[in-house]
Design brief:
Layout lengths: L1 H28 L8 E9 L1 H9 L2 H25 L1 E7 L15 E7 L2 H11 L5 H6 E7 L15
Antiparallel strand pairs: 1-3, 1-4, 2-3
């Protein structure tokens, strides 16, 4: 009889431990997210000078340049994600953005930030010398978002 009692106690103890672990994980991963304080939009388009330099290169150097630009773009994206969460975006004509001219913004991305000071840090990261090649080939603009519910935003600004 003692053997059966020990097995039963161990079974109940394991059930309690499993339930406690599940409650702990549920509370850990299902915390309410803090409200979005600020949004930053990143708009990217090609520079005419960058396109001209690219077209003058040999194909091997073009491939190397594209690889370097891609690596720098991912590194910049990762740095911005250190400051805020990537909220989504659009790139290319497949998503409805115009393409072809230097006046066309080809990539739009949004990040949720905690404060204005974080926006300033994102701008400082963009101006870092590590991203000079990227800035030489692309026009990258960081735009601080506005609260669309703010009544001071007027549609008449579009006219």
């Amino acid at each position: 009889m003692q053997y059966l009692e020990i097995v039963l106690i161990l079974g109940l103890l394991s059930v309690v431990i499993i339930l406690a672990w599940r409650v702990f994980r549920y509370r850990l991963y299902n915390r309410p997210l803090p409200p979005i304080q600020h949004r930053m939009m990143v708009a990217i388009r090609r520079r005419a000078a960058g396109i001209a330099r690219f077209l003058e290169m040999e194909s091997e150097k073009q491939d190397q340049l594209l690889d370097d630009l891609q690596k720098q773009m991912w590194a910049l994206h990762a740095r911005w994600q250190d400051f805020g969460e990537y909220a989504g975006g659009f790139s290319g004509f497949e998503m409805g953005l115009p393409s072809g001219g230097e006046d066309d913004w080809s990539i739009l991305a949004m990040y949720d930030l905690e404060s204005d000071s974080v926006f300033s840090k994102c701008k400082a990261v963009l101006e870092d010398e590590r991203y000079t090649l990227l800035r030489n080939h692309f026009d990258i603009r960081l735009i601080k978002g506005e609260d669309i519910d703010d009544p001071s935003i007027r549609i008449t600004e579009l006219f």
